[in-house]
Design brief:
With 149 residues, this protein is of the alpha+beta class. 28% of the residues lie in helices and 22% in strands.
Length: 149
C-alpha cells in the first residue's frame, strides 16, 4: 500500500497532547483503546509518532519501553476518514524502528487489528518462547477502587 504524499510523519511533541487526546477519545469510547490518564498520555508522547494531514493529527502510535528486554506498541489510532491508506502501518513501522534504536529485544502489541500487526511481522508467540496468557482479575464493567479493596 502506498503512503499519501500529503501525510507527514514526525515524533510526537508535548504540544500534541490535546490533539492526540481528541484523536484517541472515540476509540476509547468504542472500547478499542484503553483509557489513559493525563500523565499516562504525556508519558506515551515521549516515544510516539503522529501522522499529520493539512496540519491536523490524523494518526498516532506509541511504543512504551519497559526495559531493554520488552516494549509494547500502544495507542495505535487513525481517524476513520484516513483509514486504509497505509497510515497505521507506517506508524507501526516507525515505532518498530524506535524500539530497534533502543535495542529492545521483544516488542509486543495487544490489538484487535490482528491482520495489520501480522503483516508488520508480529505473531502470537516468539519462536521457541513461552506464550503470554491473560485474564480479567475483576469482573468486566466493575469500577476499580484506588485502595485495591
Amino acid at each position: 500500500m502506498t503512503h499519501s504524499s500529503q501525510i507527514q510523519y514526525r515524533r510526537a511533541a508535548r504540544t500534541d497532547f490535546t490533539s492526540v487526546s481528541e484523536l484517541l477519545e472515540p476509540f476509547v469510547q468504542q472500547q478499542q483503546l484503553l483509557p489513559r490518564s493525563e500523565s499516562e498520555l504525556h508519558k506515551l508522547l515521549e516515544c510516539a509518532y503522529v501522522a499529520i494531514d493539512s496540519e491536523q493529527i490524523v494518526g498516532f502510535c506509541a511504543v512504551e519501553i519497559y526495559s531493554r528486554k520488552l516494549a509494547e506498541l500502544q495507542g495505535l489510532a487513525v481517524t476513520d476518514s484516513q483509514q486504509r491508506r497505509g497510515i497505521g502501518r507506517r506508524l507501526v513501522e516507525l515505532c518498530i524502528e524506535l524500539a530497534r534504536k533502543n535495542n529492545v529485544h521483544e516488542l509486543m502489541a495487544i490489538t484487535s487489528s490482528e491482520e495489520l500487526f501480522r503483516e508488520c511481522g508480529f505473531d502470537y508467540a516468539l519462536p521457541d518462547q513461552k506464550r503470554a496468557l491473560f485474564m480479567h482479575p475483576l469482573p468486566l464493567g466493575l469500577p476499580t477502587q484506588a485502595n485495591g479493596t
